[in-house]
Amino acid sequence: MLKISNVETFYGKIQALRSVDLDVNDGEIVSLIGSNGAGKSTLLMTISGVNKAKRGNIVFNGKSIENQAPHKIVDMGICQVPEGRRIFSRLTVEENLRLGAHANEKGKYFENDIKEVYDLFPVLSDRKTQRGGTLSGGEQQMLAIGRALMSKPKVLLLDEPSLGIAPKLVNQIFVSIKNINKEKNVTIFLVEQNAKKALELADRAYVLVNGKVTIKGPGQELLKNKDIQAAYLEGGSKN
Amino acid sequence: MEKKDIIQSFKDSLFTGLIALALFGPIVGLRTASKGEGLFITTQWGLVFLLVGLCILGRFLINLNSARKTEITFFSKLTSKFSAITEDKAKHFAITAILFAAVFPFLPFTDRYFMDVAIMILTYIMLGWGLNIVVGLAGLLDLGYVAFYAVGAYSYALIATTFGWSFWICLPLAGLFAAFFGILLGFPVLRLRGDYLAIVTLGFGEIIRIILINWYEVTNGPDGITGIPRPSFFGLPFKRSPDEGETSFHLFFNLEYSTMHRIIFLYYLILVLALITNYFTLKIRKLPVGRAWEALREDEIACKSLGVNPTNTKLTAFAIGAMFGGFAGSFFATRQAFISPESFTFIESAIIVAIVVLGGMGSQTGVVLASIFLIGITEMFRDLEQYRMIAFGGAMVLIMVFKPKGILANRKPTILMHGDKK
Questions:
Q1: What is the per-residue pLDDT for B323?
Q2: DSSP state letter for B248
Q3: Backbone angles phi, psi at B405, to 5 degrees
Q4: Where do the structural domains in chain B lie, given as residue ranges?
Q5: Chain A interface, mutation test: which of B137, B294, B306, B361, most A Cβ atoms within 10 Å?
Q6: What's residue B1's pLDDT?
Q7: What is the DSSP letter of B29?
Q8: Were B405 and a residue from A169, B16, B74, B409 both cysteine, which residue would form a disulfide, CB within 3.0 to 4.6 Å?
């Protein structure tokens, strides 16, 4: 459903992505792992249109979407949960969620969508009048995911949902991600530094090194891969 | 409180005194007086020492206050009184203020001077509310807001003097023109943020003023535009002896002729215009576009990732903010009956920004309080002539010391849950 071929992205003269080929099929959870600066977030930003691809194609459901305006890409059904959550801290939880449905706040299913997010993350319902900035890291991450779900995406792009969050909450968030995939039938493209968790969750996974995809395969298979174990699993990540 | 702290704050106060001496010495201490054939310098060191002494004492008291944080002192009492004015109470304040504003022209002590000051304060409140949309809600620091005020005033003046249309036709046209200029400014600054945006908007304000001075054929240059028609009360002019075939206001209502009629009408006109601005802002905050403004102020990248179109969002903020500036400008033109580029200098922009910032960014009631405080104080001290701006500066310093985030710093959520009201 999402097919990325030969994508190259630059920051000025610095090349961040080198001919990246990657695809995500309908209903899958696909993980992308890699170290700091490998280009993981750049790839997500390129898919969602915030960064522009200099070369290559991104095709979503048969339509070419590279270099479209970000809001048009969201309208097509790709929504990103940005790295570091980026909650609107002075706005309340409910206002944050409403912004997620910015395109169709008056839409027919709006009230129901908000209820679904509260069902998924009951803690948000308790805090709906609280300001986003007063939530804990984990709660903010839930809010960021909930906010993205409000746009009714077909594909959810998650950028490091485990970043800066208590280990207990990390598990909870990964369970929620699985639920979103299975129950709401949302395709997930997950970018993570926490390689073990990301690979356990994934149907398929890719490894990005210096802007290039070096290894790909089913998540379980990659967990057993010697190179990946050496580079990303032993000592590298503590969970 | 330890002895060390006292010595420390004493030293600090003395240092403050030195700075005050350096400033007040030449400004207040030396005066030129003309005697016979020439200027002579006279001195007034007594006043200088009084001012310096006040600065030292004030600084010392502030230091003492910040040193004993736990104890309740005079200053913390004062500040807690200020912080008691929360947005909840602000609602009661708003209702009282509107009622007071409605009966103000008929109070026994209200004279022509009070009315003029009130009209001026209301004009600034309206401008503050207009700018609040751009600065407070959308977070775009606009230092050239006076440009839209000028565009509104000149559009009104030119349309009214050229075509002779009535105030009620010219007002929306002037607003539209200003909104168009808002978009014109918006396009080139879409990619700018923070300081850079502030500099470009500042430049824009100056460009408009310089065009007004130099485009002699249209704007009449520095001489300005005279004979701008006064507004009429739904077709009834405020004239002692109306033209042939016209009925004037006092004849229609069978009243004794008085110039106050027009002043009172102008007062209600600006009151209604300002309240419309406020009502509009409060309503639009609850709509998706208003919420998008606030989100954009918080985080532009998050907005993009959620499908908010930042281009449209910013342009609507600029256009709508400018439109209200244009309305206020039309009012200014019709009230003064004369406008020139002199009225639209940078200091006007600075005062409006000061009102928004000191009021507490995004707070509607804060704008009212800050306008009354800043404009009222400069008016009250009009008799002090050149020391007026010291009072203005002093007022700003006081607000920044006691309420560093503005008089009303709390943002009120746009959605309140049923039964969740505290």
A1: 97
A2: -
A3: -100, 10
A4: 3-71, 83-402
A5: B306
A6: 57
A7: I
A8: B409
CB contact under 8 A, B288 and A71: no
Phi, psi (5° rounding) for residue B148?
A: -75, -35
The whole-number pLDDT of residue B39 equals: 79
Query: What's the CA gap between A89 and A99, in Å, rounded?
Result: 13
Residue A88 contacts B where some CB pair is shorter than 8 Å: yes
Please report the domains of chain A, with CATH numbers, ordered by start residue. 2-233 (3.40.50.300)
Using a CB–CB cutoff of 8 Å, tell me whether B47 touches chain A: no
Q: Say whether B305 and A81 touch across the interface (CB within 8 A).
A: yes
Q: Count CB atoms within 10 A of the CB of residue B96.
A: 10
B211-238 tens-digit pLDDT: 999 999 999 999 999 999 888 887 788 8
- DSSP characters for B96-139? HHHHHHHHGGGSTT--HHHHHHHHHHHHHHHHHHHHHIIIIIT-
Asked if B114 and B312 touch (Cβ cutoff 8 Å), the reply is no
- Amino acid at position A148, single letter: A
CA–CA dist B76, B96 (Å, integer): 27
**Structural domain B83-402, CATH architecture:** Orthogonal Bundle (1.10)
Report in angstroms the alpha-carbon separations of A195 from A155, A209, B396: 21, 13, 54
Helix axes of A110-120 and A167-183: crossing angle, nearest 10 degrees: 140
Phi (first) and psi of residue B42, to 5 degrees: -110, 160
CA angle, residues A155, A161, A164, in degrees to nearest 5: 165
Q: Would an 8 Å CB–CB cutoff place B405 in contact with chain A?
A: no
Is A163 an interface residue toward B (CB < 8 Å)? no
| Residue B422 scores a pLDDT above 50 | no
Decide if B417 contacts A128 (C-beta within 8 A).
yes
How does strand B30-34 pair with strand A212-218?
Answer: unpaired
3-class state of residue A48 by DSSP:
coil
CA distances from B31 to A92, A202, B42, B44, B45 (A): 57, 81, 5, 8, 10
CB within 8 A of B120, min separation 6: which ones? B375, B379
